[in-house]
Amino acid sequence: MYDCIIIGTGAAGVSAALTLKALKVNFLLLGDKKLSRKIRSAEKIKNYPGLIGVSGEEMSKVFLTQLADAEIEITQGKANGVYPMGDSFSVMCGQVTYEGRTIILATGVETIKPVKGETEFLGRGVSYCAVCDGFLYKDKTIAVYCEGEEEIKEVLLLSQYASKVYLFCPEKVKVDAPNVERVGAVIKQIKGDMRTRAVVGVQGEWAVDGVFMLKQSFGADTLVYGLKTEDGAIVTDKNQGTNLAGVFAAGDCTGRPFQYAKAVGEGNVCAYSVNAYLKSGKGV
Amino acid sequence: MYDCIIIGTGAAGVSAALTLKALKVNFLLLGDKKLSRKIRSAEKIKNYPGLIGVSGEEMSKVFLTQLADAEIEITQGKANGVYPMGDSFSVMCGQVTYEGRTIILATGVETIKPVKGETEFLGRGVSYCAVCDGFLYKDKTIAVYCEGEEEIKEVLLLSQYASKVYLFCPEKVKVDAPNVERVGAVIKQIKGDMRTRAVVGVQGEWAVDGVFMLKQSFGADTLVYGLKTEDGAIVTDKNQGTNLAGVFAAGDCTGRPFQYAKAVGEGNVCAYSVNAYLKSGKGV
């Protein structure tokens, strides 16, 4: 059991981790070991105090060195769901589960908006996790959306369960399985009644029993059930607390401006709020 | 007329300035040319993302280089008062006045609490500015509180107006004027009826017509009339807006945690909020 689980390794997650470490809180930093794709891909950062005109690549290097100096390890993993367990939380991460007394969401901003019907049919045929839910579709017909090569392993896993996989992917990926058919780039809509019944693409409609949306990032409210959001941003108070006790949020996932300085500031505040929350005896 | 005046050159003020510059907003950065005393005096900063284990002195150097690179100049000065002028604000700074459409308060945290009666008699015998109000006390008896050598020039100026100056100062400063008498280290209380009538020190009470509190930093609510504060911290919303339209605040002056990362984040958010405020046609 960790005192805190930080989900995300962007600027907000890194800042929260450095400060939790200084506060001697026992935490897990969960995300991409190379740091978030967004940090790495920035061309030039002009207005971050302390780093003069660096690229995202250079900023990442400094952050990684700083984490190593502070003896903070990143646990590689993508959270699929956060579940309240009374006084603590379970974070599902593929087949692994981590337990934490508090959560800091530093998941960044969702780059792809949910398609029509996605949120509506979530848990009723729509899933984000091949490893978690694949077995539910044994000998069934499913649709899978993925962003590129990085998710092909998950598509192959799903092809072992399902009888037929309709694949949607913006890239022309090659999948070595006879029952996988790439039928388009994007899913436009998910349809159904009590459960998912069909997906709509640009070139038609396909009857399916389930849909897997294998995206790099999720809407925070689909990651954490019951989390209050507004226009896709997590609603936070001045202490970066959310509407759920023990869940805090920082960085792009709390809304604009999408800036490194803001993310770093909110991550710092989260760490202090988590510390105060733990010391108050809550979440223990 | 500036579009924005940033008051304070700590981490929050520097961050706001870098981002306002990137947003091409025409602004004035008002404060200590060497940056705030608090940044400079930090021994070791462990948890600021981007600068690994630096001292405050080293952080100041990086910030100053960054400001110079961005062609941002600091205007040396200590604001004594911010006055709303309809659609803009006047910032009094000794004998100089600057006009701005918006204000970013990045004044840090007040290190010395107001003494009993100070806020009550403000404008009724209590003043923070020798240059502004000294002439009001021609041939009168006044008390002056100052923190050290840096304010002696102001004490001398006051001694030219007043017939008698009772000086309170924690340091044993030497003032070369016959009518200045150091009577204690601190003022404990200011008393009066409709106006200030006396000051109370550790060793007695002195009848005076006015009191000058020459402090390095003020409570934000004494700097800006009508500003909403709670426990000495400026109350801000998620966009760092205060209860006064056009006035934003960032850093230690908005409350705990007193951290560089938080200050930098809030400064950044202020810059975006000022920009949005100006673009909305308000304050123009």
Concise synopsis of the structure shown:
The first copy, chain A, has seven helices and 17 strands. Chain A has 284 residues and is α/β, with parallel strands linked by helices.
Helix and strand arrangement:
The structure is a homodimer of 284-residue chains.
Chain A: E1 2-7, H1 11-22, E2 27-31, H2 37-41, H3 56-69, E3 74-76, E4 81-84, E5 89-93, E6 96-105, E7 126-127, H4 130-133, E8 141-146, H5 152-161, E9 164-168, E10 180-184, E11 189-192, E12 196-201, E13 204-207, E14 210-214, H6 220-223, E15 229-230, E16 233-234, E17 247-249, H7 260-279
Helix pairs in contact in A: 1-7
Unreliable stretches covering 5 or more consecutive residues of chain A: none
- Biggest protein-protein contact in the assembly: A-B, 38 and 38 residues
Radius of gyration of chain A: 20 Å
The class by helix and strand makeup of chain A works out as alpha/beta
Please give the number of β-strands of chain A. 17
By CATH reckoning, the class of the largest domain in chain A would read Alpha Beta
* Overall morphology of chain A: globular
CATH hierarchy: architecture of the largest domain in chain A: 3-Layer(bba) Sandwich
**CA-CA gap between termini of chain A:** 10 Å
Describe the largest sheet of chain A. 7 strands, mixed
Task: List the domain count of chain A as a whole number.
Answer: 2
Strand content of chain A: 25-35%
CATH level 4 superfamily of the largest domain in chain A: FAD/NAD(P)-binding domain
- The amount of helix of chain A comes to 10-25%
